[in-house]
Write a structure and sequence with these properties.
The chain has 13 helices and 18 strands. The longest helix has 28 residues. 36% of the residues lie in helices and 21% in strands. The two termini are 22 Å apart. Strands 1, 2, 9, 10, 11, 12 and 18 form a 7-stranded mixed β-sheet that branches. Strands 7-6-14-15-16-13-17 form a 7-stranded mixed β-sheet. Strand 6 and strand 7 form a beta hairpin. With 417 residues, the chain is an alpha/beta fold. The protein folds into 2 domains: 163 residues, FAD/NAD(P)-binding domain; 177 residues, Polyamine Oxidase, Chain A, domain 2 (Alpha-Beta Complex).
Length: 417
């Protein structure tokens, strides 16, 4: 019988597996997909040019353990927090007065959300910001990017609890590549989806498509999207308090739509544009890190709708915005695309988590183990670094530390008796 089975080889599962080996636990890591990394995944948008379909930024970099890991493994990133997007509205570039007014509103939204943390009150982000402002559509859009859910479904208190140092550094070498290199050498069983977890007094039986594994404890690191959709059966069923926590911290949708180009149809363009010329704004990254592609970013219900419309519709939508800004000829230079679809990804069923309004306490409940046999980790369980790769990673390490301490305590009691 193993000491621990870890379900899911994303950042949480890989961090947990490394920690388990360091603690001397007899560990088995199981992954349903054909690869490790979970929502950290890099492909190439152009030959030799990584593009992150999932996480991309070393958020809160001075507190982020993946900075040291990137340094050690030689994965490139940029130490920059400078970001000055150009504002596009009514078919033109905003003037200085409009840009200043936009920034004041953005800062006011941040302040009213932060006040929820200091006051200890909660509510939907949509209900506490100034909705009479002409810039309110951007607040709704930006909230959907940060949380993958629309502002009426986002707990302002939870959002305010997130620990943001303002150091958000892009992994130009690919965050997915970084996590994959970190996980290289960790023993993992791929293509082995867990179908049922059976808890008994003498231990736990983990039923996978590849067979049954017996263990003393299980650490579940899959997304709340997988848990909410009952992709894993539990015997006995999860208690009501746990299911309520899963429902209170759902996954939303956040997608990136990248289009590669021949040559440089964007000569002299700003590197980041906030396009306000449609009902739903869009952030456009132009020639990231000097490479010949552009990216449109979507979140929330609009991202979900566009994903369901298909990759072609997503590309057409971003292209229409680029043509309106740079002229119709820009389309002639297009040479390919990459479009994410996290809502339909069978191993996550969403992008990342947010707490529903009034449920900001549920991340801690989600992380609470059941009978010291069934443990939980992942970005959704992180109280300060949720929706991030390093939050998932740290949650896995923390859970294994507690599991190892419980093992040591049990051994001590057995020796004393």
């Amino acid at each position: 019988m193993h000491d621990l089975v870890i379900v899911g080889a994303g950042a949480a599962g890989l961090g947990a597996a490394r920690a388990a080996l360091e603690h001397g636990l007899d560990m088995v890591l199981i992954e349903a997909s054909h690869r490790i990394g979970g929502r950290a995944y890099s492909e190439e948008i152009l030959p030799g040019v990584p593009f992150d379909l999932g996480c991309h930024w070393l958020h809160s970099a001075s507190l982020n353990p993946f900075v040291e890991i990137a340094d050690r493994l030689g994965v490139a990133y940029e130490r920059t927090t400078n970001w000055s997007p150009a504002l596009r509205l009514s078919g033109r570039w905003a003037d200085d007065g409009e840009s200043d007014d936009f920034m004041r509103y953005w800062e006011a939204c941040d302040q009213v959300i932060e006040a929820c943390r200091t006051d200890g009150r909660d509510g939907a982000v949509a209900d506490i910001v100034d909705r009479d402002s002409p810039w309110v559509s951007f607040c709704d859009y930006w909230t959907a990017l940060m949380t993958s859910s629309d502002s009426d479904r986002v707990s302002a208190l939870d959002l305010a609890t997130y620990l943001d140092t303002g150091e958000n550094w892009p992994v130009t070498g690919g965050y997915g590549n970084l996590v994959a290199r970190f996980g290289a050498g960790i023993p993992v069983t791929l293509n082995s989806a867990v179908e049922r977890i059976e808890r008994r007094r003498t231990g736990v039986r983990v039923h996978t498509v590849s067979g049954v594994v017996e263990t003393r404890a299980v650490l579940v690191t899959v997304s709340t999207g997988i848990l909410a959709n009952d992709r894993i059966a539990f015997d006995p069923p999860l208690p009501d308090w746990k299911r309520e926590a899963v429902a209170a911290v759902p996954l939303g949708t956040h997608n990136r739509i990248a289009i590669a180009f021949d040559g440089d149809p964007f000569a002299g363009a700003p590197s980041s544009i906030i396009d306000m010329d449609e009902e739903v704004p869009m952030l456009l990254h132009i020639k990231p890190y000097g490479h010949d592609y552009a990216v449109g970013v979507t979140g929330g219900r609009f991202a979900q709708w566009l994903e369901r419309a298909g990759a072609g519709a997503s590309v057409d939508h971003v292209m229409s915005r680029l043509k309106r800004i740079f002229g119709a000829d820009v389309e002639k230079s297009a040479r390919g695309h990459l479009v994410t679809a996290w809502g339909g990804d069978p191993w996550t069923l969403g992008a990342y988590s947010t707490c529903l309004p009034g449920r900001a306490d549920q991340r801690e409940v989600l992380a609470t183990p059941i009978d010291d046999q069934l443990w939980f980790a992942g970005e959704a369980t992180s109280p300060r670094f949720f929706a991030t790769c390093h939050g998932a990673y740290l949650s896995g390490i923390d859970a294994v530390g507690k599991i190892a301490a419980l093992r040591d305590e049990t051994r001590t009691d057995e020796e004393a008796s």
